[in-house]
Every structure is written in C-alpha cells, then in structure tokens.
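Entry for the shared binder. Reason: the reviewer on the internal report wants the predicted structure included alongside the sequence.
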Amino acid sequence: MEHNFMSPMGRKAITEDSLPLGSTGLGEDISHNQILDAPTSTSTSTTPSWVVKLVNDSMKEESFATPRYCPTPCTMFRAPTNMRQVNEHAYDPVLVSIGPFHYKKALLQGMEEHKLQFLFFLMRFQSKEEKEHRFQRLAEAMKRLEGRARWCYSEVFDDISTDDFVRMMVIDGCFILELFRYYQRSEKEKVDDPIFRTRWKLPVIRLDLVKLENQLPFFVLQELYMLTSLGHEPPLIHVALNFLHPLLTPTQRIPIHDPFLEHAPDHLLALFHSTFNPKENPKISSAHGSIMQEKKCLIPSVRELQRVGIFLKSGEGDLLDIKYHSHHMTVLTGRASLEIPPLFIDYKTGPILRNLVAYEQCNKCVKPYFTSYIMFFDGLVNTPEDVQILRNKRIFYHVLGSDHEVSVLLNDLTKNVAYDHWHDCYLSPLLHKIYLRSNMTYLKIQATIRREYFSSPVSCISYMITFLLLYLSVIQTMFTIIAYIRPHHEH
C-alpha cells in the first residue's frame, strides 16, 4: 500500500540517479518497497505539505507541552460535549464569568464593572501610591502563579495574553473573595450593594460559582485571600463553605473537621463536591460485580420494589446516605425497607447535579458519587406515579409544575452519561442485595399475598374475620359429623 502515498511524479523521480552510490539498479534484488523507503535526493516539493508540517511539528518539544498532555492532571474542564447536547445551558454561567472559558463573553459583560467596584472597595482608604503598590503586589503574585494556573485548565488559551490572564485572575479572584466577605457581613448587618439589594442576583451568582466551566484554581484564591486580608479572618475554606451552604439540602451538614488543611480542593466546585461524603458499604466480590454489570442491574422502579416486599421511607443523614434494611420475612409483618434521605427539587437541582456529574465524568480521580446517585433515581422513577409515591413517603419535595416534570428531569440527568464501571458505584452493595431479593420467587409470592390481602388495617381485619368464620364453620362441621357418627357406634 505504500506506493499509494506517492504521486505519479514522485514515482517517476525514482530513477538510477536516486539509487545509492555504486548501484546500477540492474540485476539487483531490490524490492519496490525498499526503493520507496530509501532516502531520496528529490526536493521536498514532491512531498505533500501536510506531511512536511507533521514532521516539523513532531520535532518541536513544545508540541506536547500543553496542559492537555501535562504530567499533572487537569482539574478544570469544559462540560463533555455529549452531556452538553442534552442541556447546554446548565453549564453556562448566567450572570458572572469566572476564569478563561467564558472570558469576555458578550452576554456576561454587565458584571465586569461590578467586579471592578469590588476590587476598588478593597483599597478604598488608601492613597494613590498605596493603591499602586498594592496592585503591583497582586499582579506580581498572580504573574508567578500564571503558568501553574494555565496548566490546571484542559485548554491552552493562546488567545489570552499573559497580561490579560493575570488581570483576569486578579479581578475575578478578588470579586469572589469580596463577595464572600460581603455575604458574611450581610448575615449580621444590612449591606448596601446591588447584589444584596435584590432577591434574585445572589442565588444566581452562587449557582454560577459552582459550574464546571466557571472556576479559578483554589490556590489562586488562597494567595489573593492572604494578600487582601485586613486582619484576622477565618480560613478561606470555612468562608467559602459558609457562602455555598444555601445550595446544600436542609439535611446536609457542613463538615465540622476540615479535611482540606492538608489537601486543598482544586476549586469551588471540588470543595462543594467534597461536602457530600456517603458512608460506603463493604464492597461486593468481583464475581458478583461482573454479574451485576453484565446484567445492567440497576434499581427497580418504586412499584416494582413494592411488588417484592421492599418498602420505601424517608431516611436521615446526608443526601447520599441511602440505606437498605432486610428483616425476617413473614406473611403478615415481615418486610425490607429502603431509606432515602429527602431530596428538595427546585430550579437549582438540575444545574447543580449536572455540573457535579460533569466534574466526575471529566476527572477520574474524583469518586463518582453523583453519577451513581442519578443512576439510582433514574431506575427508581419511571413515571409520574412513582414521583407521587415518593412525595407521599416524604422522600421528594418539589416546587416544579407537576410530578411529570420531576420524572422528566430525573430521567434526563442520565442521558449521555458514561456508567460502565460497576465497582466505582458506592451503592453497588445495596443494589446487589436488592437484586438478589427481587429474584427470589417465594418472597414475591409472600409480598403478593401481603399486598392483596393485608395491605391496610381494614382489609387485614376483614380477611381475619373471614378466616375466623371459616375456621368456626370447619369446627362446627366437624362436631356435626362427630355427633352423627357417635350414635351409630353405640348401636
């Protein structure tokens, strides 16, 4: 096939003059491929330009020195293309741009002036010379971190110059830090700022700051926090968690012990992700895991679980702490239970879950807790009736228009999400137990009997009375037969 890569002119150029010195080309055993592979003295004009460019590029060491191929894994990414196809707006900032992915985006320029106001507020009591000196310190600090910060992103951003990149880190970073400080003050006193004078801006900005494509490296924020601190302030991680707290569910708790004093998070989204740390069950064996993955055994739907005697109830603890309890099964009282902490669903739920899952999809070092979580609910909820049951059980609380909207949202979350590694699923031991139970025939029969005949106190009492009457009828019949037989024996 090699000859196809050369033009007819290239093949004609292979003559006796192109053979090695001392060769005549007559009576020598030189194959056609050997001739083609041999170096020639023909001009590069016979070689396709794209080949010449590839050769030249391959000789440049810097061709492979981009963040995409760096030895240290990237931590900030664009949302996966396949997930964007389902809902592209969930990953775009609505009000404020942070970092290079949406830098100078026209729709977000309205907040740029506000960012500058926050930056100027830092130096409101200083003279011109003091401000210049402080700006210079911030610029020099960010200039030292520029290379490290660029390597954190999955793209190169050659179109952003060094000065622009440093300026972006200073302005965006100081905006985030001042927003945190303003928020702390707003909890104690009234803050006179347009963001805090409205009801809608702060929640939207808070949501923007946990979007995958809207992040700054945490070490950049940490450096700016130290340089702009005016006195004793709590650790940045505590301040950031306090700001993000309204995004947590009412049952979620901010970690008391700070696990990041030794290992700082990569960015704010990573910090938010770390607040969800479920208690993992013992891992199932690799053999069982292979069977589960082969059969694609996800959680059955709500009604299917009820058919095999598994009842759902609202649990306690963190959002991801889903528990399964299997009790001794009897026809009347025995049952298994699945405890699910309440999920509060509003306009923020979809974007938050999508960005957490996108972060897990892009970074294999991050445990896929939320990927497993949305897959769990995708199996559990198939219809609006399933949502209604979960509402009645106080597992779902939602402010969407209807149960149908909730069902569509939960099923859409898993579209185009990669889910091929069963052993990474923190719920796999729980799902394995449910799978084993749902395939036991006698348990299905018992559950059917209990559902059909003992599903409510009224039906239970009525059937017990029926059985009692039947029992008494049998006793009466037996005594009648005995009374009839005994006189015949006496004769």
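Summary line for the report: The beta strands are 310-314, 323-326, 336-340, 343-345, 396-398.
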